[in-house]
Design brief:
By secondary structure, this protein is of the alpha/beta class. It is built from eleven helices and ten strands. The strands form two sheets. Strands 1-2-4-3-5-6-9-10 form an eight-stranded mixed beta sheet, with helices on both faces. The chain has a two-stranded antiparallel sheet with strand order 7-8. The two termini are about 35 Å apart.
Length: about 300
């Protein structure tokens, strides 16, 4: 891979803040929507003349742990062709909450009102709770399975899209490239996500996030000693193949948490592999301002729509 960027300026903004899935939507989940949209006349679910009402179902459980919950936004007029966008928050795999992506959710609902959204939480990396990369990836898989298994009740498609920010972007890419066994995820959007966890030179330097060395954060997530092959196998850059799903990448040129060159490397690798993708840089830090985020969302929606066939 190419040599590191010689320097990076100060950060522009702060970082954007398993269980088996239930096989059917529970009665409590159905009641939480407060509507009877499944029985509205004309809602035939075949892609024509749907009059289904909007449903918002907060804190829907997809497992037994308190963190295994998602907020579901089902649009009015949806049919079995309605696509679902899964949002995955960041926070260095150790912190963060689905509410951190509410601005992303609001933008998506405004720019693509026909799409459904699932904004998910997942168990956070912790040595005391024995939660690391495998447990977190199991949660992402369980959330996907929950949405797919309940598509009839939700009246949505089994075609999914993923969008993540920071560590959430890493998880979205890693799932899409290496764990998407049912091929339900059709494309992924990466907002300044770490693509190379085995970037030893960068992470061995003095890099602190929220008062903690990024190297220590990575050790906790990977649950293994520093400088071992596990970090490479958990890196989207390394697990991408010619069959990987279409990817759109956004990164800030003054990001001092996840270096810009990691996304540049990923862009180059996807080009070499022939994976459909787009790549954009912004004068911004780790966590974009509202104007840049809105521009990214316009591009992401357009990209998603163009890669759903």
């Amino acid at each position: 891979m190419k040599s590191k960027l010689s320097s990076v300026r100060e950060i522009f903004s702060t970082t954007v803040r398993t269980f088996v899935a239930c096989s059917v939507v529970t009665c409590s989940v159905l009641l939480a929507s407060c509507t009877k949209d499944e029985t509205v006349p004309g809602g035939n679910g075949n892609g024509n003349n749907s009059t289904l009402a909007e449903r918002i179902i907060p804190d829907t459980a997809y497992g037994t742990d308190a963190r295994q919950k998602m907020d579901i936004y089902l649009p009015a007029g949806r049919t079995t062709a309605t696509k679902v966008i899964i949002l995955i928050h960041g926070g260095g795999w150790e912190t963060g909450d689905k509410t951190d992506l509410n601005y992303y959710k609001d933008l998506l609902r405004a720019k693509w009102p026909e799409a459904a959204i699932a904004n998910i939480n997942y168990r956070l990396a912790s040595n005391t709770a024995n939660i690391h990369y495998s447990e977190i990836m199991n949660d992402i898989s369980a959330a996907v399975n929950f949405i797919v298994d309940n598509r009839t009740g939700f009246v949505t498609s089994d075609s999914l899209l993923m969008l993540g920010a920071s560590a959430g972007a890493h998880l979205a890419m890693l799932y899409t490239y290496a764990h998407n066994t049912g091929n339900h995820v059709r494309a992924v959007a990466d907002f300044f996500g770490p693509a190379v966890l085995n970037d030893w030179e960068w992470y061995n330097s003095f890099n602190i996030w929220m008062g903690k060395a990024i190297k220590d954060i990575l050790i906790q997530y990977n649950n293994g000693p520093w400088d071992v092959p596990l970090y490479q196998s958990n890196s989207p850059y390394s697990v991408a193949t010619a069959q990987s799903r279409p990817t759109i990448i956004f990164h800030g040129t003054i990001d001092v948490i996840v270096p810009l060159y990691q996304s540049q490397w990923l862009n180059g690798r996807l080009t070499t592999l022939g994976v459909p993708h787009e790549y954009y840089e912004y004068l911004d830090g780790h966590g974009f301002n509202n104007s840049n985020t809105e521009d990214c969302m316009n591009k992401a929606v357009s990209f998603f729509k163009s890669h759903l066939q």
